[in-house]
């Protein structure tokens, strides 16, 4: 839907909600306003025919589809042999055609490792799963990890060494760099600087330390946009030393989040989601739940899961933390004057709940909050007795913890003063993502010789003299540490497709070593005192994907009396919030089409970033969705389209950085606006004094929140724990509806699925897992705007309550595999049929594209290939799952319960002469889910896990009143409000 031209009558919407009787669920302000564009979208959801390219030119089409179509120069050989395209004539030992192999490794984000298992088919990596043995994943992953496969095969990755933009070679590069290194060596290292992102690799840090030893006056700087500078400074303020904080949400009964999206971001978000959701499941006779309070400036998926939440400005978060600490009698904390935005009765009830759960509670804040808030949170957890019970302290995971902003400032000062003669930028894109006031690009140009190691010829590569292609993490050997210190061994799944070099290999070259990455890694670990020459340890660590027993031990800390400076006076003007993007992070994933097209969990926006305004502020300023405003902050400005976000804090604007790339690749360049243009080193996360001006222009946006709507029907069900207990005693009577469909008896397996809406956070990892597993294509911004996205699985979210502070309910929705499927009767060619085990299947080579099935589907879960999204070139097959048909244009497609996995399990069971075991089949969406909200199995087996869950009193079928008999059912969302806060009404309760 193009939201750019629609202006809401927000006052009328507010009055309509105030006069509504009972609960009213809604997805968007368009739906509440019943705008003309919203009605037009509903009417055009199934147009008669696809006419032309709907204004999408050939150039734009090629740009948008490049990452998933134009794959070239790929190989089917395994690492570490050189990448060559060769015919598969002679089989390789250990490889059986048709049977995938899985290898343990890790991918990193911000330097922190997440353990994974990579599926390879005939030597080609095709799918990533979580490593069940790894503490950061426990078998699950996030969306960034799922998309790493597409990043591996991206044809826009850098493919050759360049000098000033011209092609060159490795030998020429070495001959150019070595004389400059000798000059630096003669000067004791003066003039040599290295800039990296966060380093947790034991091997990498040892190499960098060796480099500094060989060049004593050289400098190692670190910077990336999403750093933990505030957390580090807060720990020093509280304890006098830097420590890393680890939380155990599976042991917490009450959780208070001060602007921390711990379920959606951070190196431990996958593990935290697993632990948190484990205490959100209610069953008949088991109703103990944790309780989550969230105070946040911009809505997040953590806020969506809250039992109580309030929107607060960033400056109000610190005021609230001070008031909370004062009530808990924290030494050195005093109540701060000013309006924290939290009613006194609300705060009193919160403090009482925390005290009642002392030792089983958690107070957590985010890296975006200033050091004072972190120090207060440490003191509050100490006062509540949470330390060493739900909150643990460990030594920092980073190899050399530094304040990264200060480190960057030092580098910029040296470059400006002409003190840097040779600079190595090892990963990252500082020209794009450093604060605007530091003028990194301008000062970088003053360095005599500039070398960039990166995956793309990006904005930084453009200004550097030399650019060296960086190997993908699935192409090389390495190691990295997880959030708790656990060390993971990385091994390559395939030889470098484009001849890339790892950071370790480039550092080895600078040190005069010519060893390959494997030997560097192996020799490092064989030199360690605990593993000296222990080959069995090495093989076990590579096989398992982690170094056993490497988790960092708990570290004793002593809280110092807090000496906090008075908080800044509350500003009456607008505040600016800056956050990483939910799908592009800091911009490094801009050229990944899967992530560009993944609807953002909160807004369902695709292919763009926006400036988020609260409904109240939009009403006051007369703003509409898609209207472009000029945001000015500290003499820096950027133009951004407006998005009115329910639940956003008043008097502040949130923008997400990562967009606005100019050299990201054919997919990512030119999408969105660059929020780094208004990010400054003294206000990297939020600041006061934001000025807003209208420009009189609009920008078309592509938002999927209104697609496939099911208005006015009983779609989501929400209840409190008390309501669940009461209704469990008198369960809803489920009548057997009359039907004209002939009954079918399933003698063997009969497959079904259940989704627990109390556990699901809406993180959307399942959407990308399904896309990767089932070869689902990317369609581009214009096609998404037309309602033609191809995702087989969508994450619906429904609001309830006022626009200013609504609660949200998350509902994953895919084909529910109706037992009496409306789609089957209307298909004139029998392309959609029932299998012998109850699956609603699609026979692609029968489908002629009438779309009758889609029109007759009440769930709107079928997708139609309007165009030839899938290219048939042989090189494309390297990324595709060979067990799933790649669909042609004009074919209807949908969820199949991962029938290829069902078939594989059935074949194995037949060979072994046994039935399929419960839990043996795990669908792609189920496997990836950090919350374990999805369960699949045989509903004919009363002892199966899925059957037992379907017998729960709060199990229901979406639109079951239509007589469709869905095989995928849902458990109602159950939440756990504080009765004292709930009694306060709308301002206090999230219902």
List keywords for this structure.
single chain, 991 residues, alpha/beta, Dimethylsulfoxide Reductase, domain 2, Barwin-like endoglucanases, Alpha-Beta Plaits, seven-stranded mixed sheet, globular, disordered C terminus
List the helices and strands and how they pair.
Blueprint: H1 10-18, E1 25-26, H2 29-33, H3 36-43, H4 58-69, E2 101-109, E3 112-121, E4 124-130, H5 143-146, H6 148-153, E5 162-163, E6 166-167, H7 170-186, E7 192-196, H8 202-214, E8 219-222, H9 229-239, E9 244-247, E10 254-258, H10 269-277, E11 291-296, H11 301-304, E12 308-311, H12 314-327, H13 344-356, E13 361-365, H14 371-383, E14 391-394, H15 404-416, E15 422-426, H16 430-433, H17 440-444, E16 449-454, H18 459-463, E17 466-469, E18 478-481, E19 487-490, H19 503-510, H20 517-526, H21 535-544, E20 574-580, H22 593-597, E21 605-606, E22 611-613, H23 615-621, E23 627-633, E24 636-644, E25 652-657, E26 686-698, E27 702-703, E28 718-720, H24 721-729, E29 751-756, H25 765-773, H26 781-785, E30 794-800, E31 807-813, H27 822-826, E32 832-834, E33 840-842, H28 852-856, E34 863-864, E35 892-893, H29 899-911, H30 924-928, E36 934-938, H31 945-950, E37 955-956, E38 968-971, E39 973-975, H32 979-982
Parallel strand pairs: 7-8, 7-15, 10-11, 10-13, 11-12, 15-16, 16-17, 20-25, 22-24, 28-39, 29-38
Antiparallel strand pairs: 1-30, 2-3, 3-4, 5-6, 5-17, 9-14, 18-19, 20-26, 21-27, 22-25, 23-24, 23-26, 29-36, 30-31, 32-33, 34-35, 37-38
Helix pairs in contact: 8-19, 9-14, 12-14
């Amino acid at each position: 839907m193009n939201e750019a031209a629609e202006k809401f009558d927000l006052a009328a919407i507010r009055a309509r909600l105030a006069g509504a009787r009972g609960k009213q669920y809604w997805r968007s302000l368009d739906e509440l306003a019943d705008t003309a564009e919203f009605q037009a979208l509903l009417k055009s959801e199934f147009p008669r025919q696809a006419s032309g390219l709907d204004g999408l030119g050939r150039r734009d089409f090629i740009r948008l589809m490049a990452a998933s179509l134009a794959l070239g120069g790929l190989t089917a050989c395994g690492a570490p042999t050189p990448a060559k395209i060769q015919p598969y004539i002679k089989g390789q030992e250990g490889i059986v055609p048709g049977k995938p192999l899985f290898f343990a490794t890790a991918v990193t984000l911000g330097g922190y490792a997440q353990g994974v298992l990579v599926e390879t088919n005939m030597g080609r990596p095709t799918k990533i799963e979580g490593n069940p043995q790894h503490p950061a994943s426990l078998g699950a992953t996030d969306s960034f990890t799922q998309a790493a496969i597409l990043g591996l095969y991206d044809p826009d990755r850098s493919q050759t060494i360049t000098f000033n933009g011209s092609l060159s070679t490795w030998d020429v590069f070495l001959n150019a760099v070595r004389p400059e290194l000798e000059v630096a060596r003669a000067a004791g290292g003066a003039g040599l600087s290295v800039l990296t992102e966060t380093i947790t690799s034991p091997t990498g840090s040892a190499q960098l330390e060796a480099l500094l030893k060989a060049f004593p006056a050289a400098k190692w700087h670190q910077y990336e946009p999403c750093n933990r500078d505030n957390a580090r400074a807060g720990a020093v303020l509280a304890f006098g030393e830097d420590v890393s904080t680890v939380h155990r949400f599976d042991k917490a009964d009450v959780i208070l989040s001060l602007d921390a999206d711990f379920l959606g971001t951070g190196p431990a978000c996958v593990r935290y989601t697993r632990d948190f959701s484990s205490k959100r499941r209610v069953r008949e006779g088991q109703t103990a739940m944790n309780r989550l309070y969230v105070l946040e400036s911009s809505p997040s998926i953590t806020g969506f899961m809250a039992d109580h939440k309030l929107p607060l400005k960033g400056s109000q978060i610190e005021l609230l933390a001070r008031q909370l600490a004062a009530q808990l009698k924290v030494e050195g904390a005093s109540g701060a004057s000013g309006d924290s935005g939290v009613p006194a009765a609300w705060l009193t009830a919160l403090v009482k709940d925390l005290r009642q759960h002392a030792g089983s509670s958690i107070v957590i804040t985010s890296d975006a909050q200033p050091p004072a808030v972190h120090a207060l949170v440490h003191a509050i957890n100490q006062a509540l007795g949470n330390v060493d019970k739900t909150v643990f302290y460990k030594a920092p995971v980073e190899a050399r913890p530094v304040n990264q902003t200060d480190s960057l400032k030092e580098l910029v000062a040296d470059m400006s003063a002409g003190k840097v003669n040779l600079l190595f930028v090892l990963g990252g894109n500082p020209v794009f993502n450093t604060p605007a006031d530091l003028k990194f690009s301008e000062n970088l140009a003053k360095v005599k010789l500039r070398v960039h190691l990166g995956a793309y010829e990006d904005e930084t590569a453009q200004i550097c003299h030399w650019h060296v292609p960086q190997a993908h993490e699935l192409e090389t050997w390495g190691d990295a540490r997880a959030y708790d210190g656990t060390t993971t061994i990385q091994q390559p799944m395939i030889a470098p497709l484009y001849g890339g070099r790892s950071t370790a290999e480039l550092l080895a070259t600078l040190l005069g070593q010519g060893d390959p990455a494997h030997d560097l890694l192996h020799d490092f670990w064989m030199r360690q005192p605990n593993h000296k020459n222990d080959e069995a340890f090495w093989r076990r660590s590579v096989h398992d994907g982690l170094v056993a027993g490497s988790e960092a031990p708990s570290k004793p800390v002593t809280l110092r009396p807090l000496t906090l400076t008075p908080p800044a006076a509350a500003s009456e003007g607008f505040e600016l919030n800056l956050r990483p993007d939910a799908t592009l992070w800091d911009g490094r994933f801009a050229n990944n089409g899967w992530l560009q097209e993944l609807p953002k969990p909160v807004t369902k926006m695709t292919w763009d970033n926006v400036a988020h305004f609260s409904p109240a502020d939009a009403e006051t300023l007369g703003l509409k969705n898609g209207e472009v405003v000029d945001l000015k902050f500290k003499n820096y400005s950027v133009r951004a389209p407006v998005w009115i976000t329910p639940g956003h804090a008043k008097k502040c604007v949130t923008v997400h950085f990562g967009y606005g790339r100019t050299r990201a690749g054919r997919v990512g360049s030119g999408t969105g606006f660059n929020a780094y243009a208004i990010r400054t080193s003294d206000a990297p996360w939020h600041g006061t004094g934001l000025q807003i001006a209208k420009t009189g222009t609009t920008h078309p946006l592509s938002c999927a929140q209104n697609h496939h709507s099911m208005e006015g029907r009983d779609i989501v069900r929400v209840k409190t724990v008390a309501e669940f207990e009461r209704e469990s005693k008198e369960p809803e009577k489920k009548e057997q509806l009359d039907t004209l469909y002939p009954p079918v008896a399933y003698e063997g397996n009969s497959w079904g699925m259940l989704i627990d809406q109390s556990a699901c956070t809406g993180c959307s990892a399942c959407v990308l897992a399904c896309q990767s597993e089932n070869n689902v294509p990317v369609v581009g911004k214009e096609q998404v705007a037309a309602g033609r996205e191809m995702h087989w699985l969508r994450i619906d979210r429904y609001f309830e309550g006022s626009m200013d502070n609504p609660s949200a309910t998350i509902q994953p929705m895919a084909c529910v595999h109706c037992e009496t499927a409306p789609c089957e009767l209307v298909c004139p060619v029998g392309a959609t049929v029932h299998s012998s085990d109850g699956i609603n299947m699609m026979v692609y080579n029968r489908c002629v594209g009438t779309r009758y099935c889609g029109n007759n589907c009440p769930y709107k879960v079928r997708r139609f290939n309007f165009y030839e999204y899938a290219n048939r070139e042989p090189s494309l097959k390297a990324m595709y799952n060979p067990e799933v048909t790649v669909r042609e244009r004009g074919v209807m497609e949908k969820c199949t319960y991962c029938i290829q996995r069902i078939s594989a399990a059935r074949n194995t069971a037949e060979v072994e002469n046994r039935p399929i075991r419960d839990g043996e089949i795990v669908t792609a969406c189920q496997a990836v889910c950090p919350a374990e909200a999805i369960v699949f199995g045989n509903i004919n087996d009363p002892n199966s896990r899925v059957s037992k869950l379907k017998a729960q009193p709060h199990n229901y079928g979406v639109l079951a009143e239509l007589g469709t008999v869905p095989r995928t059912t849902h458990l109602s969302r159950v939440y756990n409000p504080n009765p004292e806060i709930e009694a306060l009404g709308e301002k206090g309760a999230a219902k």
